[in-house]
Amino acid sequence: MSAPASDRTASPLIFELGQEGRATQYVEHGKPLRSFMPEGVLRDDLPLPDNTELDVVRHYTRLSQRTFGIDVGFYPLGSCTMKHNPKVNDALAGVREFAELHPFTPDDLSQGALQVMYELERSFCSLFGMAAFSLNPAAGAQAELAALLIAKKYFRERGETQRDKVIVPDTAHGTNPASAAMCGFKVISLKSDARGRVDPAEIRTVVGPDTAVCMMTNPNTLGLFEERIHEIADAVHEAGGLMYYDGANANALMGNTRPGDMGFDLMHLNTHKTFTIPHGGGGAGHGPLGVAGHLVEYLPTPYVVREGDRFRLDFDRPKSIGPVRSFWSNFAHVVRALAYLYANGAEGLTKVSQYAVLNANYMRVKVAEFLETPYPEICRHEFVASAQQLKKETGVRALDIAKALLDRGYMAPTIYFPLIVPECLMIEPTETESKETLDGFVAALRDIIETAKTNPQELLDAPVTTVVGRVDETRAARQPDLRWRPPR
Ligand SMILES: Cc1ncc(COP(=O)(O)O)c(C=O)c1O
């Protein structure tokens, strides 16, 4: 028996997939929750370990000291925007009225939470030039998948099912082609030109009646702005395709330009990057998905609507692709993101991006004194260096530099990405670091390059000061050992 959308407090309630795989309704089965659980996971009796509180506190404190995070030190992981996560955001997300609100609370009793979602959504629209956002997706990659499902449905309804190709530049993050492939599209990889950009003439050679979507990151993953983005968007649109903006690098452009104005039809944000949300905090991250006017009806459900001064979750959107995750969003992250947004305001966010760009260029010029920087021009929020020449001269690779940085108290930059730069180090300092921190990191990197010339073995053995030394990366990736073992 289906329960009306307004009666979502009955218990136990579970998702039920309706026709066409749309998970739009909740049903009461009138059976105990146990009856939905597989036999193998049911327990009648669970022996608890016999530990004192002090044992437990020491255990977790020790564990917390074995890891490295932004609260411990500089974390220039390119494309990840590891900036300071203001603690006031956590305090607000922890406010009892937010933290204890059950997702099935009726709309009448959750007006404040719905208003928070609505205001974040509206703010994103104005900041990024989109008509609407869904706060549903739990990560950038999930938003990519949802966006491509929207594109697929949009073309199916227009009778253009022959559109089965997604164009992705060779600097794109791996999730772009992976999302396209998962959605059943064929991926066309586009070679970047000598300046690390997509050439609109090149795009014109691949677009056609089979083009569904072109996925672009701007600034791209080399940290370079695609200044001919309008020509690229025109070429794709003239062929009848859609433009998707991968917003992983949105920290470079807030208040200075907007994806909507560049001609994008769909986009995602990674609030765990641009909006100071802890990466992975409270489970998954948060990847809001924005769309232009012609695609609003396809957004995942539910969507928060405002009626006068009231708010409600709208499940009744017939063209929607349906929900893409459980419940309505990673709500604690929605609170954190709105807190950050309001704390800075439009002017503050513009400055955020300008300082992110300034810091990256300051470091780029300093690093170029001792390491190749293959694109020696003004970058945006990040830049790439290459250890190719160093490797030829000394045998020391980007990987060894990364490990040696750990010994000097820094998190390593992203390495071996983007793939088109050999022995790549991709450095993103963010706007929240001081000049002293940037100088300290540059000095450590300079010291490593000098050590490569005098004592390369020291770098090949690194790291020696961390809890875990040099690991076999390939084996760790292919045969991960995820079992818990008691501390020795
Ligand atoms: C350029 C780019 N696109 C997409 C993603 C995927 O985002 P998420 O990790 O939120 O799934 C990333 C993640 O690092 C990225 O750097």
State the gist of this model:
37% of the residues lie in helices and 12% in strands. With 488 residues, the protein is α/β, with parallel strands linked by helices. The termini are far apart.
Secondary structure: elements and pairs:
Elements: E1 13-16, E2 25-28, H1 53-65, H2 87-93, H3 96-99, H4 111-128, E3 132-134, H5 140-157, E4 165-169, H6 175-182, E5 186-190, H7 200-206, E6 211-217, H8 229-238, E7 242-247, H9 259-262, E8 266-269, H10 271-274, E9 289-291, E10 303-307, E11 310-314, H11 331-367, E12 383-386, H12 388-394, H13 398-407, E13 414-415, E14 424-427, H14 435-454, H15 456-461, H16 473-478
Parallel strand pairs: 4-5, 4-6, 6-7, 7-8
Antiparallel strand pairs: 1-2, 3-9, 8-9, 10-11, 12-14, 13-14
This protein binds pyridoxal-5'-phosphate.
Q: Could you describe the 3D structure shown?
A:
The radius of gyration is 24 Å and the shape is globular. The protein has helices at 53-65, 87-93, 96-99, 111-128, 140-157, 175-182, 200-206, 229-238, 259-262, 271-274, 331-367, 388-394, 398-407, 435-454, 456-461, 473-478; strands at residues 13-16, 25-28, 132-134, 165-169, 186-190, 211-217, 242-247, 266-269, 289-291, 303-307, 310-314, 383-386, 414-415, 424-427. The chain has three domains: 1-38, no CATH class; 93-343, 3-Layer(aba) Sandwich (Aspartate Aminotransferase, domain 2); 350-478, Aspartate Aminotransferase, domain 1. Residues 1-18 and 21-28 have low confidence and may be disordered. Strand 6, helix 8 (229-238) and strand 7 form a beta-alpha-beta unit. Helix 4 (111-128) runs parallel beside helix 11, helix 5 crosses helix 6 (175-182) and helix 11 (331-367) crosses helix 14. Strands 3-9-8-7-6-4-5 form a seven-stranded mixed beta sheet, with helices on both faces. A three-stranded antiparallel beta sheet has the order 12-14-13. Strands 1-2 form a two-stranded antiparallel sheet. It is built from 16 helices and 14 strands. Helix content is 37%, strand content 12%. It has 488 residues and is α/β, with parallel strands linked by helices. Bound molecules: pyridoxal-5'-phosphate. Pyridoxal-5'-phosphate binds at residues 79-80, 139-141, 173, 175, 217, 221, 246, 248, 270, 285, 287.
